[in-house]
Write a structure and sequence with these properties.
- The chain has 221 residues and is α/β, with parallel strands linked by helices.
- The protein has a single domain, classed as Rossmann fold (3-Layer(aba) Sandwich), CATH 3.40.50.
- Strands 1, 2, 3, 4, 5, 6, 7, 8 and 9 form a nine-stranded mixed beta sheet that branches.
- α5 packs across α7.
- The radius of gyration is 17 Å and the shape is globular.
Length: 221
């Protein structure tokens, strides 16, 4: 999964935003791009499909650097939610190091959320990955709308799994940074267990997250 060149001291991480069509994956990344410090993230590329947008951008084009000299580049993708683009979703999931599942909080979208999460599990298996092992967080987006699933009901379903669950409104811009930070923390723990980021490279969880999640001073966060 992880692209790691020990001799060159370079590592590339791939984070994927997944979920049903129109759940707000694109808006999440647009907001994230706006909220993060310009010195800490790269340009934004929007690839249009027939009916929705797919986004990719490098968050750290100049790399995050550990005390050992290890340079870590982070790439963030989102996938098209429509079923007809399932092949694209599989391709984007390949070599993913962490996944944020973006669910739609509207009551009428509950079945679509369930189907999309099952699709995520199947597609991870298809590309040789285990949903039980990959760093994963869940965001329930669109909390600003009416007729949404109650938060206690959501937490009652997901908290027994141990997967972090966050509430958000990508349209209003809250919960976006928190979701990304939670995904960054989960990803770090997974990588540290395999590549000893702290022991061998002097890169702590706090340092990794603070360098990656640097908010724009004008964002109010």
């Amino acid at each position: 999964m992880i692209e790691y060149d020990q001799d060159e001291k370079k590592m590339v991480l791939k984070l994927v935003y997944y979920g049903p069509a129109l759940s707000g994956k694109t808006t999440n990344l647009l907001r994230l791009h706006d909220l993060l410090d310009q010195d800490g993230r790269g340009g934004l590329m929007v690839l249009d499909t027939a009916n929705e947008r797919t986004i990719y951008f490098d968050l750290l084009p100049f790399f995050l650097e550990a005390p050992s000299g290890l340079k870590i580049k982070v790439k963030v993708f989102t996938v098209p939610g429509q079923v007809k683009h399932d092949g694209t979703r599989k391709a984007v999931l390949q070599r993913a190091d962490g996944v944020a599942f973006i669910a739609d909080s509207q009551v009428q979208e509950n079945l679509n959320n369930t189907n999309s999460f099952e699709n995520l599990e199947r597609n991870l298996s298809f590309v040789g990955m285990d949903i039980e092992k990959i760093p994963l967080v869940i965001q329930y987006n669109k909390r600003d709308l009416n007729n949404i699933i109650a938060e206690p009901e959501i937490r009652g379903v997901w908290e027994p799994t141990g997967i972090p669950v966050l509430m958000a409104s990508a349209l209003e811009g809250w919960g976006i940074i928190e979701t990304f930070r939670s995904l960054a923390e989960a990803t770090y723990r997974s990588i540290d267990a395999r590549y000893a980021l702290k022991a061998d490279h002097g890169l702590s969880l706090a340092s990794f997250v603070s360098q990656l999640v640097r908010c724009d001073q004008n964002s109010g966060l």
